Amino acid sequence: MASPQSPASSVSSQSSRSFNPNRPSTLEDLVGHFVASKRALNTQTVLWRANEIVNSARELLEENAILAAKNSAIRNIVDEQVDGLEAVRQGIDVVESEVQAEYKQLLHDLDASYAGLQSTLAVLRDTPIESALQPPGTPQKHLYDFIDNATVTNLKDSLRACIDRYNEAHDGLKESNDEYDTSLENLHSSIENVPLTPTTASNPSPIPSLYRDLEGHAKEAAQAFQSLVQHYDLCATALRHTEGGSDAATLATGEAPVPSSDDISTPPEPMTEEELQEMLTVLQKDAREVEDVVSEIRERGSEMTFLLSQIENHIALLRGEDSALNSILQLVRRLAVQVRGHISTSHSYHASWLEDSRPTLLSGIEEWENQREFYERFDLAYAELLVEIASRRRRHDKAKRKAEEAQRELDRLHADDERAREQFTVTQGDFLPLDIWPGLRDPPRKYEVKAVAYERENGDGDEELQEIAQSIPQLGRNVVERALTRVKRRM
User: What membrane topology is annotated for this entry (predicted)?
Assistant: First the structure.
């Protein structure tokens, strides 16, 4: 909308002019333009609202910067804290995995050693004591009847109790880890549900741009309104320079057409006919644009309201994100407190493993192996006993034969001695007095080969004399051969 030129000094002394029907505008038109321009000034309320919108947007712009920085900082803090919580959880998993792997290996070794012991005990159960070694009429015994079964049973019970303690500690750790995992899942779910304000490095916050658009609309609306004010002043000036214009305007609007820039008591500045004609031409041209200017101001007001709503929507997102992130921080704080308990449970589990379960299982494996080795030696010793009995029997038989041979030789020598003495007596006995040697008539000394008694401690620690050793049993050839085979196989 064009503005009128400043009126030059009038060459006429009259303060108002009579209406000339040949002029471009009639008095009725001028009054209509004046009424329309005055009505158009009601758009000032749009400017007031525009000012409020700009002020509100300015505050929201500041809040946007604060919230965006705060939310970004909190997200970074949350990410760091979540990484720390995940690292702790992974550390607990590493401890559990290492212990579980070693535990399973030790259980495997324990089962293998126990199975080896049971295999050895099965051999003892199936190995009967030779009947020749048992007193007549006694029940058949096996090697297993001579072992201390309580040692095996006690160790088995001890290991079972150790495994129960380990399982109890592991169940406690598993329960703790399940709670930890649930807390982490809830935390991740809460983080995923945090409303993410759509701002990135490539897509920054829209508020600064929206605020610039608001300022542009406000400035343009203010300039448009200023043109309306100028048009109103031009209408008022034209009416004041037209005869009857002020009265007609007063009748139409209830107030005299006084320009805002002039005092009511000041008479209108004189202007030439050419200047008046030029002013009316401008007025008529601008009058056609008033409605467009009013529409533009209202549209800009509506656009500013829409832009403010976009800013408010974005701020609402930021506020929602801020509130949700604060809730996430509370979750992180609570979980951080709970983590101390989870770490303590993991430490207790690991300490129980190192101080109780592991050494007990290792000791059990060693004990099973020692018992298996001992009972294998027992089985081997029995086989060697059978071989030894056979050897003793052979030596006994050989000694007996030698003793019998010696006895026969002694008996022969004794008989020879008797015959020689009798012959001597027959030949010389009549000539020798009996008292010449007291042993002249004695029979020859007789020698006997017999078993010698031996000494053996009784149950009280005293020694008792055994008149003769028990006879050595005679084992079957197949028994001795089997025993020899077993001895050779284990050598």
Answer: Peripheral membrane protein
